[in-house]
From TrEMBL:
Keywords on record: Transferase
Recorded GO MF terms: pyridoxal phosphate binding; transferase activity
InterPro entries: Aminotransferase_I/II_large, AON_synthase_class-II, PyrdxlP-dep_Trfase, PyrdxlP-dep_Trfase_major, PyrdxlP-dep_Trfase_small
Cofactor entry: pyridoxal 5'-phosphate
UniProt feature coiled coil, ranges: none
Pfam family, one: Aminotran_1_2
The organism's place on the tree of life at top rank: Bacteria
Protein name (Swiss-Prot/TrEMBL): 7-keto-8-aminopelargonate synthetase-like enzyme
Domain Aminotransferase class I/classII large, chain residue ranges per copy: 96-410
């Protein structure tokens, strides 16, 4: 049902940073169509590897679907060590959750986890119950100027910065100036650095629709102008670095310093649940532990998440991590060998096959599901209108034959549904 949203405050419509009503009304048909053919809001049970028992009911009686949607790039999410870690933590405390602000009381296992992650990521690590909440905690503090010597920065967002960052623009704008620049536009960022004494740049390390930030160039701007970097590497951790320190962290020196914060999710490559902030200096740590919003109320990560993350740390410190990283690289290579995308050749496991028409993209995703492959059909507002696509996350756990067959079926269905061979022009 289409809702017309009328202004209720005497005609004032701001929308400088957000236009939720517009996004909802424009995207409604794109959500309705895949939902009607069971591509969205579906249920299933994870079994082994990347297989999902599709739907509800006894798992043995359900169709098995190979999933290319979940972001567990190393296939750690159903690793026995991680599952056992979650159970052990709950049993140790006879409790799931510490229902208390973290400024007051913390369960000891959470402290242990932060200590181990600090060693792995070579930073002062704070753990949150999700990556989204880590960002929510950070943005107001960043805007306040407390991280930049008491001077309020101009906060510059990459236009494709993840929505869990971009949604805070109005909050940041309440404190200081906000700018948005074209994706990875280093020249525009340098201009802003030249014109303003204090600049913060907010971006993703690895972008969830594919691609990544030019960390080397960003570090050059940091050295030249003192640029403060806030990099959300939700999709980059675990899959890069000797101990899985990630795409962004592995490109910084051992000491992170006072002008860089790296955020990440523990719910993707890391295979557990939660989010982290990697900080470089003690002053920042004190600020966050006192003033970041998720330190209040009962928002601490629960013990299942903490225990799972402790299990994942064991894997991150073993030879198995490197083996899984290498298997992931092989999976990506295999996919690239069959299907060319804009991301072809990079070592990030996210590939988007551009289709264009939303209706065609949905029809292709449905045809893939009918053949036993669940992929992510993406469209407005994640992508621009008429720029819909199929996102595929390859992982270290996919079988060679599954990736090969997926690619064959993608090419076949694109030709059948659009009447043209891939790549579509
Ligand atoms: C770049 C980025 N940041 C943050 C998040 C949120 O992380 P979490 O799922 O742990 O809340 C995501 C999730 O997709 C993401 O892609």
């Amino acid at each position: 049902m289409q809702q017309q949203i009328a202004p209720t405050d005497g005609g004032h419509l701001s929308g400088q940073f957000r236009n939720t009503a517009h996004a909802i009304s424009e995207s409604r048909p794109y959500f309705d169509a895949p939902q009607m053919v069971d591509l969205m809001a579906v249920h299933g049970q994870s079994t082994t590897g990347r297989t999902i028992a599709w739907g509800n009911g006894p798992p043995e009686s359900r169709p098995q679907v190979i999933d290319f949607v979940r972001c567990s790039y190393l296939g750690l999410d159903n690793h026995p060590v991680i599952v056992a870690g979650a159970i052990d933590a709950i049993e140790a405390h006879r409790s799931l959750h510490c229902s208390c602000a973290r400024t007051r009381l913390n369960f000891d296992l959470l402290g242990e986890l932060e200590q181990i992650l600090s060693e792995i990521f070579c930073a002062r690590v704070l753990v949150f119950s999700s990556g989204m909440l880590a960002n929510l905690g950070a943005m107001p503090i960043l805007a306040s100027g407390q991280l930049t010597g008491g001077r309020k920065p101009v906060v510059v967002f990459d236009q494709f910065a993840h929505i869990s960052l971009a949604c805070h623009k109005p909050v940041v704008a309440d404190e200081t100036r906000v700018e948005t620049i074209v994706h990875n536009d280093i020249d525009a960022l340098e201009c802003l650095c030249r014109e303003n004494p204090v600049v913060v740049y907010v971006c993703d390390g690895v972008y969830s629709m594919g691609g990544y930030s030019p960390i080397k160039e960003l570090r050059q701007l940091q050295e030249r102008y003192g640029l403060f970097l806030y990099i959300d590497d939700a999709h980059g951790i675990s899959i890069f670095g000797r101990q899985g320190e990630g795409f962004a962290r592995s490109q910084f020196p051992e000491a992170l310093g006072d002008r860089t914060i790296i955020a990440a999710s523990l719910a993707k490559g890391f295979g557990a649940s939660g989010g982290v902030l990697m900080l470089g200096v003690a002053d920042h740590e004190v600020l966050f532990r006192r003033y970041s919003l998720p330190y209040t109320f009962s928002v601490a990560p629960n013990l299942a998440a903490v225990g799972a993350a402790l299990g994942s740390c064991k894997i991150h410190r073993s030879a198995e991590l490197g083996q899984r990283q290498r298997r992931l690289a092989q999976s990506i290579h295999l996919f690239d060998h069959r299907i060319a995308t804009a991301e072809q050749g990079n070592s990030v496991p996210i590939r988007t096959i551009t289709i264009g028409s939303e209706a065609n993209a949905i029809a292709i995703a449905k045809a893939l599901l009918d053949r036993g492959f669940y992929t992510l059909v993406t469209f407005f507002p994640t992508l621009g209108q008429e720029r819909a696509g199929i996102r595929v996350c390859v992982t270290a756990e996919h079988e060679v034959r599954d990736i090969e067959r997926l690619c064959d079926v993608i090419l076949q269905k694109i030709a059948e549904i659009t009447g043209k061979p891939y790549p579509l022009r």
